[in-house]
Structure formats: C-alpha cells, structure tokens
Amino acid sequence: MSIWWSLHLRREAASVPLARRLLLGTMETAGVDPDISYDLSVALTEACANAVEHGGGTAHGDSLGAYRVTAYLDGEKCRIEVADSGPGFPAVRGERGVLAVQEAPRRPVPVAAVPYDAEHGRGLSLIEELADHVTIGNKPGRGGAVVSFDKILKWRKDAPLMAV
C-alpha cells in the first residue's frame, strides 16, 4: 500500500490545521495507529507553523509567499516534507573561508532548555522527539528551508489499507 499527497499552501495560519486534518484523515482511513498519527500530526503542525512564520517569500517579490507539504505513506513508513520559499538556514564560513549552507544542529535548542510553556523555540526539537529520522536543510537553487521527517508506522488490527 502506498499513498502520497502534496499541498501548495499560502503562508497563513489557517493553512496549518488544514494540513494537519488532511494527514489525520489519511492515516485514520488507512488504519494507522492513533498514537503514531497524533505524533506525526504534532510534528507536521510544528513544521508548518515554522514555514508560516519564517518561510517568507519576500526575497522573490511575493510578500505573502507559499509553502509545500508532501506526505508519503509507503509500506511501513511515513515521510513528511515541508518546504518553504524563505531565506532558509544561514550560510556560514567553513574551512578555508568557503561559504557553506549551515546544517541545522542535531538539537537546535535542547528541549530541557526551553520552558514547557514557551511560545517559540520548541518546534524543531519537538519534531526530532516525535519522529524517527529528521533532516533539516535548505532547498537547492531558489532557496528556502526544507524539514523532512520519517516515522515507522504501526497499524490498527482492523486496518483496511495495511501494508502486506
């Protein structure tokens, strides 16, 4: 069983619950365990919120901008990718003075260092806690950030679309 979908969304707060509901509906219909679905939906919400807040398209002449969400349920794994058109992660001087795109640190902000009720600064750490594998970087070419994450799926006993 394989399902995939992709959304092109405006950078507006209302787009975040739309992406989350589509993911939850897809996973429920496929028969994914509700705990796994919930973890992925929270991670997706954080990635989308970051794209809405930080993924501005002003560098390309579009003050509102857009971002893309793509989800793949393939066999026993779900992969979600959120890509925006903002400035991406900053470039830094590497060895021999060469400019390179900064790789996001494995723990951008330690979870323990951010108060539990903080309104900012927890998104990437939450995604890393909820997913099995996370990749954070910049899109090649036009720019923008890409956050992708995978999680091994568990299925309900009555799952209609469970992988065989």
End-to-end separation in angstroms reads 8 Å
State the secondary-structure class: alpha+beta
Q: What fraction, in percent, of the residue positions are helical? A: 25-40%
Residue-averaged pLDDT, rounded?
81
Spell the H/E element sequence. Answer: EHHEEEEHEE
How would you write the strand order of the largest sheet?
1-2-3-7-6
Largest sheet: 5 strands, antiparallel
**Percentage beta strand:** 25-35%
Q: What's the overall geometry?
A: globular
How many alpha or pi helices? Answer: 3
Question: How many E-type strands?
Answer: 7
Low confidence ranges = 98-111
Furnish the topology, listing elements before pairings:
Layout: E1 2-10, H1 15-30, H2 34-54, E2 66-74, E3 77-84, E4 91-93, E5 99-101, H3 123-130, E6 133-138, E7 145-152
Helix pairs in contact: 1-2, 2-3
What's this model, at a glance?
With 164 residues, the chain is an alpha+beta fold. The chain has helices at 15-30, 34-54, 123-130, and strands spanning 2-10, 66-74, 77-84, 91-93, 99-101, 133-138, 145-152.
What characteristics describe this protein?
alpha+beta; 164 residues; two-stranded antiparallel sheet; 27% helix; five-stranded antiparallel beta sheet
